[in-house]
Amino acid sequence: MSDTPIEDLALLSDCHSAALVSRTGSVEWWCVPRFDSPSVFGRLLDDRAGHFSLHVSGAERIDRVYEEGSLTLVTRIHTTDGECELTDALAMAEGVRGHDLGRGSPHRLLRRALCTTGSISVEIRYAPRFEYGMTVPLMKRTEGGILARGGPASLVLSTDVPLEIDGGDASGNVVLEAGDEVAFAAEYGSSWETPPDTVDLTRIASMLEDTSEAWSSWGREHQRYAGPYAEFVGLSGRILQALTYRPTGAMIAAPTTSLPETVGGSRNWDYRYAWVRDASLTLHALWIAACPDEEQDFFRFLTTAASSVHERRRLQIMFGIGGERDLSERTLPWLAGWRGSSPVRVGNGAWSQVQNDVYGELLAVAHRLQDQLGEMDEAESRFFATLADVAAEVWQEPDQGIWEMRGEPRHHLYSKLMCWVALDRAVEMAEILGVPGRVPDWSAAQNEIRDVILARGWNDDVGAFTQSFDSETLDASALVIPIVGFLPGTDPRVLQTIETIERDLTDDSGLVFRYREDDGLEGEDGVFLLCTFWLAEAHALAGHPDKAREVFERAVACANDLGLMSEEIDPHTGAAIGNFPQAFSHMGLVNAAWAIGQAEERAGSISPLAIRRPTGGR
Predict the structure, then answer these.
(1) What is the distance between the terminal CA atoms of the chain, rounded to a whole angstrom?
(2) Among the four given CATH numbers 3.40.50.720, 1.10.150.170, 1.20.120.790, 1.50.10.10, the one describing domain 223-611
(3) E strand map for 282-329
(4) 413: Cβ–Cβ under 8 A, 6 or more apart, which residues?
(5) Who has the most CB within 10 Å: 182, 284, 331, 365?
């Protein structure tokens, strides 16, 4: 059973796949060649699922940073006898820079351990396990390394350390004096193909530098935000970019599966897919944090994946990162799960749910990025116009809502709100879409939705907009009402909703729950970082930037030492829970920071130049 704290993990990405590395130097998770591929190292979910550990004996203190502007991880391990600098990265294709970040990947994990002072002892354990731990590979020595092959996959480990092979494991120990180093490169291939050649180990340092420069050049070209919390926003922009599958433009919710919402419970879901909602909100955050060049890739991906929306009159809520529609859920019974949290799931049964908010999220980001999108072709215009038409048709229907509840459909306020957003943005884009004649019908539906939300979404007794029509249940998604412009942040009903949620829907530390009611699933929910950032953003829109900063800083205090955030926080222990790192949380951070800057500009407490959204990028 895996016991690594989620907050101890660090993310590596090549914009094709992701790896997670523990504080103690173990690669606990790597799915390759795609984010949603079966793992080759999966100890995060079960000891038997494989890992690649460089363990420095006698560690007394461990410090970690990302090299400036990059996702190259540097772990400094201090012992009684010396210090070690461990550097890890997923290699980019050599020479890629700026906008080309992630174009092509060698599917290669780079690792380098350097003794900087004194003497250190490094214990090496290399134990790949393919297909989520189901396949123990055959291992043999090759010139310059070790070949592991089994089932559909192979890994070639380049190393000059004399590791001892025992079945599907290779291990050894090495003592390094000041200035000595050892280097490794693990490269993925298919088992039926000729294995890749081992790499020249003297080039590992330069490969690491090249990958760092690839990330840094992307940042220099794209990241020009200079408002409040710029360091947090810059890192979150890189994380969101790291969760983009560059070959198609798809954006994943998180690079992991089955990290639980309740420790030991069954709220364990696979997040390695492209939710229309999450990806749209991520793209909006990248508009602030990183001048996205990738919006055309994303919309091309989505219009292709969702091409049947015209015929089905329904937009599927999520897709595989290659455009796949069938994401049928299954369990992996041979894995115990993180800290015994089972079942471990791959696929996600929510793919077939009805969630009527997706039309609004997608049209909102298209509206936001219309200048970057340029002139739309006929297929794109038809796609966006159809989204508005469908929103006008389905808004009266019940659905599963933003939180993907697995009980009976309801008339969720958030879904109605986002159908209103879909029509509001479509009306403003009608000329660009070439359909000005649809404005009267869209406007009529928009006004009807507005009237019903105000009549049935507001509850005088609760003192807030509630989760669903005619309900008494609080839901943090009501905080989005001023964020999307349905009502101003100073509206008395908005102010009362903020006050009620802050009083009745927070834990002792002031972090926000999504809701507090039976949702048809076993176990309890943690506090949700996205919802806490929504609270900060709502305070900013209400004209309370000081209060917004207080809430914002409460949320970012939950990030780990590298600034990475999970989906939720355990209200009893303060530990990170849920899939990690979570795009929703980093997206919420970016948008809240931007809103705080805007509020402070309106209040005259900050120079407008300090929070101007970056321009350019190509």
Answers:
(1) 47
(2) 1.50.10.10
(3) 318-319
(4) 453, 457, 465, 466, 467, 468, 469, 475, 477, 478
(5) 365
Helix ranges (H only) for 376-433 are: 378-394, 413-433
Please tell me the predicted confidence (pLDDT) of residue 608.
Answer: 43
Phi, psi of 412 (to 5 degrees): -70, 130
Torsions phi, psi for 256 (to 5 deg): -125, 165
CB burial of residue 408 (10 Å; 0-12, 13-18, 19+)? exposed
**Partner residues linked to 142 by β-bridges:** 145
Give the tokens for residue 426. 């479509």
Amino acid of residue 391: A
Per-residue pLDDT of 456-490, as tens digits, reads 999 999 999 999 999 999 999 999 999 999 999 99
Only one residue has tokens 């907009």, namely: 465
Q: Give the model confidence (pLDDT) of 366-416 as tens digits.
A: 898 887 777 777 888 888 999 999 999 999 999 999 998 877 899 999 999
CATH code for residues 6-199+211-216: 2.70.98.40
Q: Is the dihedral angle over the CA atoms 127, 132, 137, 143 positive or is it negative?
A: negative
Angle (nearest 5°) at CA 279 between 276 and 282: 145
- What is the spatial distance between Cα 391 and Cα 500, in angstroms, rounded to a whole number? 30
Domain edges within the chain: 6-199+211-216, 223-611
pLDDT digits (tens, 9 = 90+) for 176-219: 999 999 999 999 999 999 998 899 999 999 999 999 999 999 99
User: Which residues have CB under 8 Å from 582's CB, separation 6+?
Assistant: 253, 254, 271, 529, 530, 565, 566, 567
- Report the C-alpha gap between 453 and 186 in whole angstroms: 55
Same fold, 6-199+211-216 and 223-611: no
